[in-house]
Amino acid sequence: MDKLLDFQNVNFFYQTKNEEVHALQNLNFSVDELEFASIVGPSGCGKTTILSLIAGLLPVSSGKIYLAGEEVKKNSPHIGYMFQRDHLFEWRTIWKNITLGLELQKLQDKEQKLEFARELLKKYDLYDFQNRKPRELSGGMRQRVALIRTLVLEPKLLLLDEPFSALDFQTRLNVCDDVYQIIKSEKKTAILVTHDISEALSMSDKLVILSSRPATVKHIEILKLDGETPLQKREDKTFGALFDFVWKKLTNEKEKT
Description:
This protein is an alpha/beta fold. The protein has helices at 47-54, 94-98, 100-104, 110-123, 139-151, 169-185, 197-203, 230-233, 239-256, and strands at 3-15, 20-32, 36-40, 62-67, 70-71, 79-82, 157-161, 189-193, 206-210, 217-222.
């Protein structure tokens, strides 16, 4: 399978009032087309910074990041971003929220994309709610709306920055299943940043484990858990051992720092 995203010796420095901080050190990893990858690491190691670099929101200090064979650019139309909060506008209907990106861009195929938006609403059981306001929807439905809003623009790569962290545990499990199945059904490549090891293991084909700052790639695990959904994958007989392996990688790192 072809690489969609490729990090080559990426370093990132930032300046505080008192010093220059080396946040990321010689990062090397790749994500293949249609792969679901997760990034885990100690708190403050720069996981969200990596997403910002991919999205072109921050420039690399050195090294290269390639998306579909080209260096990443600011405001790339090939990147879709889901944040910790759904960022739905409460005064706009679900339909108006989903089509906001289409309003802001001058597109020749706007009508085609509007029809695609309608099809996504139908496919994922939100069509009957298109004239409702976000406050009338459950937390899980709001996240589905946020994902569809991103998918309407047909990005090549989805970046998920702890998108389930604001949900209670039971809702979180259900929404993980929903989001995972939508991403797989729409044949999208995705990168998830999360603090939740179980979430990362159950959703991913590849797990990238980072060290503490300056973050390096400590280990990459290719995952082949049995199950069609994240919830089913949690039942795989090797899940517990994998969790312990990742936990030890992270806690050992914390003990050293």
